[in-house]
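Morning F.,

Quick status update on the modeling queue. The single chain you submitted on Monday has been processed. Sequence for confirmation:
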Amino acid sequence: MKRALAVALVLFASCVQAAPDSLPNPLDGQARRFVMLATALGHLYPREVDAYWGPPELDMRARGPMPTLAGLHHDLIQLRGAVAGDAPSPRRDRLAGRLDHLLALLDVIAKPRALSFDDEAKAVYGLVAPPSDSAAQARARKALDSLLPGHGDLTSRLAAWRARFMIPDYRRRAVFLRALAECRARTLAHWQLPADEQVEVAWGADVPAAWQRYQGHDRSRLEINPAAVADPGTALDVACHEGYPGHHAQFLAMAMGGVEDSVVILRSPGQVLREGAANAGVDLAFPPAARLAFTRDVLFAMAGFAPRDAARFLAVHRAVTDLSLSVMPILRDYRDGRLASGDAMAHLVLDAQVSSPEALLEFTRDFGAYVAGYTVARDMVAACVAARAGKGDRWAALRAIVADRDIAILASATPGAGACR
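Structure tokens below.
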């Protein structure tokens, strides 16, 4: 048994380390080795590999013996040294950066509490979060409170309001697919997409919310729980975020380079950038007036709601979205041990009006500082788009950011500064 395991380990090591070096271009071989090591991480932790559409022979997720973190770390260090010795080039620099961040991720996986939330955000994602804006949080809470007058605390009033606009189960799929089609149409007006691109939507209660995976060849698969699109506002947000101009369109816009671009590590700077850009893209596709018209005239009609309620519904939806500014300090304190689970849930509900605090805390426990992509990176990308476009084409600015995987903007301590100029 031990001899068989030893032979298998030797075969795995030779597959990962030796075979790619037979290629004439050193970077090509190193890129293939990176893919094999990255997918080998998915053998250990399947959720860390978000998508892969490269050559099947490089996918190590189901091949050979189970690797170890120590072994992967050692091989990545060796590969990083080899890449450093190559002639300078943009591709060499991108591959070196991906290796650096993957090594940082392995350190976080091995010692998940060794770094603070902010230090992890910096080490793994190159993300420097700006200070919390308590004044903006207070304004958002005041706006929501004024929109929902009546008796009881704000949380109770908001829960009652949300219940009024729950789409009947039998109508949710149709409402979501109509929202997805509109997100696509609005994106097509500004971005050229491949003629045969497609998002396959798969419904199931076993998916926590919504999860998009790019599969190559201009195809994505979107797995979605109907509970995740329970109201018209959320349905439209999810459709744009996961589809157009969000994740599916992002991968279509990316200038795919070498084989190293065929593997997507979930906890990586590129994915955090894409999360922020997907959220920022919702408002680009649907400015306030357009969103009101489409929600009132189409989604409300399909859901069976009174059109006269659409404007106030969207005002409440916007105020709740603005309250997401309150989420990050709570999650940071929870992740760093300054808030117990029960206290964190209470703050998420009372301060940020989060409807599923347990799920958000579980996500933070599993993925740490990655959650900053949904708010901090969103605001950075939106500010960067505005700064670069000025009065010009914001769609072109957003597309350039995601196409170039411009992760440098994540290191801007102040949104809109630094690399956004």
